[in-house]
């Protein structure tokens, strides 16, 4: 746990943790609003957005990528709505039509364009490369106070930190309207809350989180971060406030445990090379969800007797 | 262009022809099977199934290598894929039924977690067979390059079997899709039929892994039925049309991808599907957007014509520009807005029709023909001459319209 840890593992763990938190926060509302698959759709369309931004600007800088992905998410949401309304097609199928098409477009553009100079390929887009986000300039814990070494931190860390802070801030600011609109949209509308705009804002926030997490974990595993911690948290409590805290806890545990298991697990088992950290993070979040689904105190639907429940005694 | 024609006419070489036929059969099976899933409104379950195949591919590879094989046998890999896909399907079903999470959360959780586990296994395989390319990454986005005869036969045969099973089971599947409660009441076992339908989707998904890849195979299951829905109102036709669209997309898509470098077959097939979908959305005769726009415009013109004529009959001034334009175009008013001879006659007829309707509605309150009054249809299109004569006798003479 010395210099090597700081250099190789500290920044990936931080980036993974911040990504997980940034995704889990909006994920709570998506899961409650039965829009979990919007997260799925958005993280798929991040790819075409980033590729287009790269083709237009020729760089993989923060802003072009963020803007491209946000634009793609907006276009995707608009297209889903258009297909649903114009075509009279149910929302699930409309989503399936739109995000697969946009993803295919992204793959095609990526294969057609010359991206050999930059770190942008399909595999990276699908499951990220958390392990590569290391801190070259670090020489030990002392580097944390060394301005020269700090300047060499991977830029992804600042990006995800800013996004995580933004997501936390937005959640805090819009807490009340979001909570009311999530549980009772009609009531929220009568209070004068612009529910449509709020819903779109939530989706956009999720899109921004997806783009930021994209660096670290790619588009598919970002879905695990959107859905698994909030879903597990939902089975632990009845209150939204505590659900949020549970989901943050689960997100952090998934990210840290996933990274450690991926990096050091194979060594403990006598192997030599690490396995995919992003994949392991998703696996751990899935295990947490499985445990919550089996043992969570609030796992069952209310108002319905579970088959394995003892029947209430009547006398 | 000529290379495309070559590919489409199956003369671009033995391998290309093989791939094209396999992809076409796959597309037909996927579109046909997907139709029932689409009608059941559970299209995105296929997304969970597709992503859940990845760990199976990895496990199958590891098992086959442990048994001394090369680990690349397609049937073996597909069997492993089917196994974990079935596990994923059961997990979605269990979460949605036994916990309070909705099906969409279950789908998202299963697809991402299984995919993540699959990625972990792929990296394990990478380190085990350092240097040797296992080629498992082809299953992510599909690859038609270097497809073997035996692979194509597996795909084609699998597609045919799935298609045959779907044909046999189409009745109960349609029944369950349209009225699950009725189906249950008439003795069908809902869960078993749903599971059988998902099993077929699973089969198609697994077969399509090699060509289209696990991320885009859902497109072949979802898009053709969604496109076919624009062309028909009948479930059996829907399945046939969707099969046709899927087949065309598979065939044309592989043809295009063979015609130029760097055109991945899976993505191109999906984009061909999406093109057909977009054309259907815009141009389908009844449910399409263009048809709806035309219908709306015609209706608008009928309303303006009717209201304009009624206003003329009551000698009220007309200000609405569309009404004026409609009346002018039909020669019912002059360009300065004064009614023509024909316009006055038509206005009188419309006025009489409106009067007849008023009386008819008072007389025959319970008659469905009269209840269908929409303020546009002439009454003689619905009632017999005798009925109209009866109505005319009751028109108060003061209104004195003739003609």
Summary, kept brief:
Chain A is mostly helical.
Description:
The complex is a heterodimer of chains A (315) and B (403). By secondary structure, chain A is mainly α. Chain A contains twelve helices and no strands. Chain A has a domain of 204 residues: ABC transporter involved in vitamin B12 uptake, BtuC (Orthogonal Bundle). Chain A starts with a helix and ends in a 20-residue tail after the last helix. Chain B has 19 helices and no strands. At the A-B interface, α2, α3, α4, α5 and α10 of A face α3, α5, α6, α12 and α14 of B.
Shape of chain B: elongated
Which sequence of SSEs, written as H and E, runs from N to C of chain B?
Answer: HHHHHHHHHHHHHHHHHHH
Which spans of chain A have pLDDT < 50 for at least 5 consecutive residues? 305-315
Helix-strand topology string of chain A: HHHHHHHHHHHH
CATH structural class of the domain at 3-128 and 140-217 in chain A: Mainly Alpha
How many DSSP E strands of chain A?
Answer: 0
Q: Tell me the number of structural domains of chain B.
A: 2
Largest interface: A-B, 69 and 62 residues
Radius of gyration of CA atoms of chain A, rounded to a whole number: 21 Å
Strand content of chain B: under 5%
Q: Can you summarize the main beta sheet of chain A?
A: none
Looking at the structure, the CATH topology of the domain at 3-128 and 140-217 in chain A is ABC transporter involved in vitamin B12 uptake, BtuC
Q: Can you give the mean pLDDT of chain B? A: 87
Number of helices of chain A: 12
Classified in CATH, the superfamily of the domain at 3-128 and 140-217 in chain A is: ABC transporter involved in vitamin B12 uptake, BtuC
Q: Classify the oligomer.
A: heterodimer
Secondary-structure-based class of chain A equals mainly alpha
Q: Helix fraction of chain B?
A: over 70%
